[in-house]
Amino acid sequence: MTDNPEVKTACVHSCKKIEVPTDEEVCALNELRCIKEKVRDLKKRISDLSAGLVAGTRDDLMILERQMEDLKEEWLSWEEKRQQAAKERMIILGHEQHGTK
After folding, report:
1. pTM for this prediction
2. How many Å apart are CA 39 and CA 50, to the nearest integer?
């Protein structure tokens, strides 16, 4: 370490405190919450349609089930992004090395 004030000043300006969770993690978590809410609503609609509580056809039910499959795929994609952002944060913080799981 150096006592040179210019080096210390340069570090203060180039190094920034990392937010936990990172902006990328927050974005992914918000998307996951949104998907979760959509899944809840969709499950209710599927349940109501299956029980005959609302009018609809078998085709309507198939459309809702396909939407559920799409949401699952979207969930998996955002979960992967969240995990990658968390890994990058751990690398930046020095808790993990590049190339480790």
Report:
1. 0.76
2. 16
